[in-house]
Amino acid sequence: MEQKAPQRIVVIGAGIVGASLAYHLSRKGAHVTLIEAGEIASGVTGRSFAWITTTHAGADPVAPLRAGAIEEYRRLEAELPDLQIRWTGALTYDKSAEASASTAVVSAAEILVREPNLKHPPAHALFRAQEGALDAVRATHALIAGAQALGAELLTHTRITGFKTCGTTVTGVETATATINADLVVLAAGTGIRPLAQMLNVSLPIEASPAIFIRYQTQPDLVKGIISSPEMEVRQSADGALLAAEDYLGEEPGNSPTEIAWRTAEAIQNQLSGVVSIEPQTVAVGFRPIPADGIPIVGLLPGIGAVYVCAMHPGVTLAAIVGRLASEEILGCQASAALGPCRPQRFFQHACNA
After folding, report:
1. What domains appear along the chain, each with residue ranges and CATH number?
2. Which of 104, 197, 267, 341 could form a disulfide with 61 if both were Cys (CB 3.0 to 4.6 A apart)?
3. Is the pTM of this model over 0.85?
4. For 28-84, what is each residue's pLDDT tens digit?
């Protein structure tokens, strides 16, 4: 018997992944309700460096997804001009950087043409002209506005308190004020997916991996594109702020996020000419949802009817392509080969075989 495509869909989580799903599902005719416990993009999306990059160190089980990420954002950009992606290219020089067909190896002289304020350009670096970055919060708002224009409903400051079920099938969600019926529920709440799944007695191994996002007030036009080096990972936003990403080292004295932000400011000053003053405006820790094996979790939950999971890192890079592929899979009732390695079943194989 042919499976009926769900039409009433609840998407939980209004970060960039949930927003992309809501937009793509709405575009295909589904009635979407997007539910967020806080504000739009109030989780890790608002604390993201938001580099749209196809690079990955080592073997990559989701290489086809990563390879298609930029093309999907180009498509979305044409549909939603408010995304305002800055396709500046990315300059990388560290030991983990690997050349590929889409990468040019550039000399020190060429590096200075691209980034004239670098004080100590390396002998060579990798340059990926096709890469760029966006304001993840603005992009999330643009996606949600696009979904709403197609009929989607948005509920913010609305916490899920439980699920409505019929046997082992989910038929809706419970909030403090209402029950919302659904043919399918999509869990796209980042690190919040794990406790949501636990409400259904399902354990998903999703770790909350912290990283630091810093916004500096400094001089404009210090950086032309994205620079990723052993000393710094920086880019300049459209409003002139200098943005940086750093590893989280804990809260002990000497390694707190604020202290790291000031150390990074010193490193930036040492690496770039023209930095008269630099001061952290905001220092935020974002918790990235990283599955135990590092591979995104995308697909129907085994053993539970009508629940689809979408957990991934990097969420910004993959949001556009996964949003499209998952929406086609959900409403077309045909599995996507590119999403094959991402299935939740891989964490339940022993239970299924028992």
Report:
1. 8-50+136-205+292-353 (3.50.50.60), 90-129+208-290 (3.30.9.10)
2. 341
3. yes
4. 999 999 999 999 999 999 999 999 998 877 788 899 999 999 999 999 999 999 999
